[in-house]
Structures are given as structure tokens and as C-alpha cells.
Amino acid sequence: xxxxxxxxxxxxxxxxxxxxxxxxxxxxxxxxxxxxxxxxxxxxxxxxxxxxxxxxxxxxxxxxxxxxxxxxxxxxxxxxxxxxxxxxxxxxxxxxxxxxxxxxxxxxxxxxxxxxxxxxxxxxxxxxxxxxxxxxxxxxxxxxxxxxxxxxxxxxxxxxxxxxxxxxxxxxxxxxxxxxxxxxxxxxxxxxxxxxxxxxxx
Length: 202
Prior knowledge:
The chain has 5 helices and 14 strands. It has 202 residues and is an alpha/beta fold. It is globular, with a radius of gyration of 16 Å.
């Protein structure tokens, strides 16, 4: 698996491009900005984008999505309300309004998506939002804004619940092996083992 990280505006979101080398199928995990570097990377690798996998519906994770019939946009249905509010927030960051993306695939906990031979497992982790999910692939957990290095996602916005995010982390994320690497929506990579020992919120 090829993994590339792109740090995007408006608030330094981590967008992750994963590519199955055998099939050339690719997925972009979160899509914060229109980025020519991502297109160029796909071309360099001879890959084609199959999915945009949204960890949740907040505007800073979806603002780069543009209609493309060849790419399936994936999200949990519980975050549709946030999707519809996108254009309320973009002007606050000096960004133009956008066409609200159509969700092609609604996922639930335990669903499996495939990139060639790669399996992408969906883990529902509500707390930051009600539709927050993580994607587990090849020993790597793409956690969106559920868990960060030594921190957790904010829970003071609509649909947020601190007790729920703690439960999601304890019961869903910390049940994974310690060696699983965590790639969060903002900030530096970490691991399950490190967060069990050092996350001050847990």
C-alpha cells in the first residue's frame, strides 16, 4: 500500500491518499481542499481515485470535493445534517460556497470497502459527531477528529458528546492491537499503544 499525506487549508487538515499498488485503485481519506498535488500523485503512481472516504461531515473535511461520476463519496448517514450546513461555515474562513456533495455510499459499523486486495474496515466512533467513523486498513487507523496524539476531538459542537467519544475510544479504538498506527485528521501520527499510556483524556 502506498500512503501519502497532504496537509490542507483552511485549518491544516490531514488528507490521506492510499493506493493499492497491484490494482492502481486509490482512496482519499477526507478532502479539505482542491489540490493539484493529489492529482499529480495519482498520475505519478498510475492510479485512479475510486473513493473519497469522509471521517465525518464537518466543512473542513469536505470542502475540496467536486462532482466526479467516477469517484464514490462515502460517509455515515448520521452526519448528513453537517453536510447541509457547509456553506454556513465556508465564508467565515474566506472560502467560496460550494455545491454540497452527493453521498454515494452510506457506511455503517463493520462495513468493508475494497481497493483491489486491500480491505478498508469502517469503525463507527461517535462523539465528535454522531456520524464519525474511523477507517482501518493494513494496520493503520485513519481516525478523523475522534482521537489525536495525546488528545481527543472537540465535543462542544452540535452532536458532540464527551462521554460518547471516550466510550468510542475505549471500546472501539483501544480494542485494536497496540502496534496499530493512528493517522488523525489534524496533527502528528501516533499509535494505539502510545495513546493508552499518554492520552490525558482517557
